[in-house]
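Sample intake sheet
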Amino acid sequence: MASILVVIEQRDGAIKRVSHEALTLGRVLADARQGTVTALVVGPGADAGSLGTFGADKVVVVKDDGLRLYQPAAYAAAVVAQAKAEGSAAILLSATALGTCQHQYSLTIVPCSASNAARASW
């Protein structure tokens, strides 16, 4: 069973729309492998209650106040720790400034747009 980790972007507690798109793609990929989708929200105060409607089986929120403002190295560390804990087969990030910035800090995280992932062969 494949576990897909989707990194959710939020600003001031509001989930960014692109994260809903990434979750929907994660659900498609997980279903193709009879897997699960975990949504990872980094930073306190996010309203993560709606993420299940976009495909998340599980939602993990890292509520550390030190992550209230975006810090690339700390965010990447949180993503890597959760991916290892989940045994994730894939990590999806939106192709935004935040998603591509995380790539600079960890080779295990690759930004993925919906069009690129749709073409990827498993």
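Comment: The chain has one domain: 3-119. The mean pLDDT is 78.
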